[in-house]
Protein 1
Amino acid sequence: MATDFTVVDNAGEPWTLSDHLDAAAVITFHRGDF
Amino acid sequence: MAQRQDEFLSRGGRVFGLSADTAPMNTAIVEKLSLPFPVLSDPDRSEAITPLGFADEKDPRQISRPGTVIIDTNGEVAFSTTGRDYADRPNEDTLLEALEGLGLPATTQTPPELGESQPGEKAMAYEGLPHYFRGAKFAVMALRGRHRDLSEEFTDDTKRYLQMVERYLEALPAVEERRT
């Protein structure tokens, strides 16, 4: 099943995965507060 | 991954960071490391972190486990790897190999927009990073030497960690260059 989600980019703008799939998305997860 | 962004792009993949931190905290990270890609924010972990299996259920801070997922152009998860803890992060070579297997044409990526910047309370200043990595490296080297007969798994684990820290240390001059 295709994955899709909407989060917020670091500029505070909505970011939807399916809008960016003209290429592969390599998403690296961080624990944060780094 | 920032240092090797061109290798990801030439294999048809754009890199994105993602954490449960706020957008201003993520902008502070983009600025600190002069990252050439955006860092995304999933504060309640409901959109990407939990559905993709990266929620750290053991940590009370409601954070993400480290790891990487590659989503292909059909929206399918083509590759996923999850670290056991903060000291266990994927090797870029493994990710590039998985990406290459998708056979995609080269792509491009525009630099991230910056918004309000507010580092987290525990965020380390850039100037502290080289000392932090070197300290971690020598501590693990000492423990490795002290317990070298413990098990093959321990030796392999420390070897991978030292290789990871070496990659980070080797990346610092490029970070320095991007920051100037």
Protein 2
Amino acid sequence: MSRYTPHTEDERAAMLDEIGVGSIEELFAAQVPAELLVEAIEGLGEGAAEQEVFAELRALAARNRSVEEEVSFLGGGFYDHYVPAFIEMLTARSEYLTPYTPYQPEVSQGTLQATFEFQTAICELTGMEVANASVYDGPSAVAAAAYLAKLERGAGPILVSAGLHPHALQALRTHAKPWGCPVIEVPLEPSSGRTDPERLAGALAERRPIAAVFAQPNFYGVIEDLPALGEVCARHGSPLSIAAVDPLTLGVLAPPGECGFDVAVGEGQPLGGDLHFGGPSFGFFAAKQSLLRRMPGRIAGATVDAEGRRGFVLAFQTREQHIRREKATSNICTAQALNAFAGLLYLAWLGPAGLRELGGLLLSRGWYARQRLCALPGVRPRFSGPTFREFAVRLEGDLGAVRSHCRRQGVNPGLDLAALTGREEDGNCLLVAITERRTKAQIDRLCQLVGEALADQPLQAVEALGR
Amino acid sequence: MTTTAADRYPTDLLYHPEHDWARLEGDHATLGITWYAQDTLGEVVFYEPPKVGSAVRQNEIYAEIESVKAVAEVYAPLSGEIVEVNEELKDHPELINEDPYGRGWLVRIKLADPGERSALLDAAAYQALVEEG
Amino acid sequence: MSGLQPTVYERSRPGRRAFRPPPVEVPAVSPQELVEPRLLRKRPPRLPELSEPELVRHYVRLSKLNYDLDSGFYPLGSCTMKHNPRLHERLAALPGNARLHPLQDEDGAQGALELIWRLERALCALVGLPHASLQPSAGSQGELAGALLTRAYHEERGEQRTKVLIPDTAHGTNPATVAMAGLEVVEVRSGPDGGIDLEDLRAKADRQVACLMLTNPNTLGIFDRQIAEIAAIVHGCGAILYYDGANLNAILGRVKPGEMGFDIVHFNLHKTFTQPHGGGGPGAGPIAVSQRLEPYLMVPRVVRDEEGRFHLDYNRPRSIGRLRGFHGNYATFVRAYAYIRSLGEAGLRDVSATAVLNANYLLARLRALGVDRYLPLAYGRLCMHEFVLSGGPLKRKLKVRTLDLAKRLLDYGFHPPTVYFPLLVEEALMVEPTETETKETLDAFAEAIAAVVEEAKRDPELLRTAPHTTPVRRLDEVRAVRQPILREAPEG
């Protein structure tokens, strides 16, 4: 009847005959009480041919302004990176796109080996000893790391840097509410924008938390002194230390594993993922070997088959929900395998040299953009600390007016920072992300537009009075 | 490994219905899981012994044993204080499969109440339970 | 220890590369100039070093080691492995969808916001509940959302309810989720017919119970006819009723869980709505809720104003907050919405009709072939969209286990059904053919099972050492845990 169900009338009749009933309705009537069966459901419409469905959804998509249609300086966790074509081709293959989780490893060696390679890449990137096959995204990876801390140490306070992504902070609060684990923010230094190590030390001593969570770079793009933060934690009670890191900065910055951290998590979208209005992407999760039995999610391991050939299987499944049930290290079942696979392909594409070069390029272009913007009258950096991949600037002028002016010219200048953080001190600030797709010419144009908009401010102030 | 009934249900032991055994040694006892328990569980891959000095209570779970596909909860047949644990199992958990009543012993306890033994089954009764169930 | 394919690391050669960076264009700044040197990485990470042609070849070769749904039958019970239409891929890849930034200004995301809103409405219509959130990333996160909503509801009423009732046939994610939500699992027994034991439910449904989590039809493929009574008992003690939608395929367009008394209905877009499984995700686990739970739904919510424009509403003081970043797995919403629009009401009813037809037909064929002497249906006579066989007789009579049967089925070119779930059934084999399979495929599968049972009689070792024709033979899962190798060995 639909293009996806195959049976003809004759076939259906033969099948019903084999079953020994007269109609499909009989099958339902025999098993479901009549008063529960509905004849029709309103609000679903009629089906349509592929061509019609395509036209309808394309029309919807056409009402979205993508990064192909405007020059976008939007960041805040998801970034407009270039993804090479071969990744699309591989992830579209039936053999990667359509199978289920590899519960029958003998016919899933492609997926399992790719997972093993992915785990290796994440360990190398983060400097950790063991990694899983993915979790949902960056924010839920932070929540999962906090759950690991709770399983490992018992309930207790969780410290978080105020530089954590607002969504990660909110997701953590939502998850942790029933755990008896209050979430306490450690503020940033008002000038540098780095987590305040003295306030951190004070909070560690006073609250004796089970975990401490930091972001690198933090949400304001500021590069944290991760080794120092790791040391402060070690000197004040050694809570489980968790770093949420941007993977594309790890060709340049020291990874959490080399800064004494216990767990490294992060958002994987920058690794070969597209924007997709926020999902799907993947979260990566890596930790010290001693935490293996507490780790959430799938883990692939190497072994041999009956003929001594190397192969890969899902290992340590007793951590997981389908065996451990209420004592599981997490409830995760379906994760983000295909997106993690794209992440592996992207890292393999970059290689160690490429990761370093790309990191260097992001640093240079970001620095250029920050210098040029802050040279404009009425623009100051929000924080003095060095930044990577994005940075915040405070405007002496109406942020909304500046953004509107830029957007009318086909440039999205970046995020309204306070709208995301909800912090008054972030008022009238723009968060500007620079990727390898933002050329020098585009950055210069941004500066020109922002400069114009700010210069116009007296005019706009008059207009505002009139409103 | 082929086993006889005598191998599977040694007569010098007392048994708990959740497939645990106790060997009484004066005011102490050695505890473990039975042949049937390890057979059902499959190849043991992990066992973390509880701490020496901790208390166990009759009919309560005091440890877990993991195979690849399952986790078995270990019930204490008798109450007492743990005086010794089988450290060898950390690196050789397969001993629980190979020799569940010998080298696969789990903990040794000082008994809190020797009278509790009356609640346990002898080999014949336990065998009957397993083979009927 | 050689394998079928070297790993990508084993194929690497120092100095080979695939990536070429674009020109920097701006004055290059070295990291040392910007940041304290001790914050910088000293040694590069060990990542693969290959050219692009080698990368392509490596991963194409690996792909050929996978069995996949496009290639063959995949009757995994509880997974709903139905065909994945490629129209959905084309739509998800449109730049307006794929290249849309999640924090784009609302006026630049009207199409996306409208799609979310429309999908929510469609899911609500399907199940008969007024409100929905698409935010949860997968079924487990949808369950967690349900558990947290339930907590919030009772807390606001000043009630301390710490227990969640879960049937003994429940999927493992249910108890794991309950633990993560800080609640206590209380198991409810199933009766002899496979449905809930009402007496046990009545005994356990007290004012400490926050909610009952139920799948209907359940994991045995059985529709619990007592659902009205179950709802009455649960609501009678003031608890919430949660529907795990893993088995929605059986009742699409025919039964509305909202009208069965459920307060929360969860969906698996990667099951019922044909988001491709991707080897383990992505998926999505939206939930629909009754009016009384609406205030607690996650932020943000998509709202439509009087001019027909769409907005994100963050101003929801009683919301439980958010469970993940941004709006959820939007690309899966595009696919699910396209699916619903393609099928329409009649097509969705056809899905459940054909799913139930196919499962009962396959069951009838297995009986006709005499398979049920060794693999009888665990409960009842008919089934909904899936059925569970017990391999108990097979084990006792022929000394061959469900696992061995499953491994031998691989040699016949089929992915085996789900094994050893639900735990209630001895040596369980859970079969869900789905509605996109032909009669010939079902016939071939039934014959393969019958053939394997025959082999078990003549030559049981053949099964115990299976599979024989797959890219690798049976893998040693014990060794993987006893001697863990979870990554390529670090160098040096």
